[in-house]
Amino acid sequence: MESKKSSAVENGVIMWNFLLKELDNGVLVQIFKHLDIFESTSAIQRFTEALTKASTVQPVWETLDFSMLKSEFVKTPSEPFVWVNSGSDNTLYNLLFGALKLSQGKIKTLIFHYNLYLTNDQFIHMAVRYVIIYNF
Q: Could you count the other beta carbons within 10 Å of the beta carbon of residue 88?
């Protein structure tokens, strides 16, 4: 009985460490806002188990589809030719890096909408972090 309790506590600690390390604080705050004090322990446990399973399953992270996202932008006649709203850019930044962090390098395909403008920093981060070498 003692070993079952200690392994359950150890699993809970591992899940909490994973949750706190992988998720943004804003996401955690939104989750906790919707939990009742009486259901919080079981709901948090179910949530962390589901998140851990989802983040370790290979097929879930093979393709990230951002085709529904569009940047709020204004075309200009001179350089830089497109001006992107900073709020739109920050939203994309947070979604992209959050997804890349949770995927743990398992991504094979990224899909973007043609009206989604990425910054050089976002491209460089993806290229450095997720290098896949193909031999043709």
A: 16
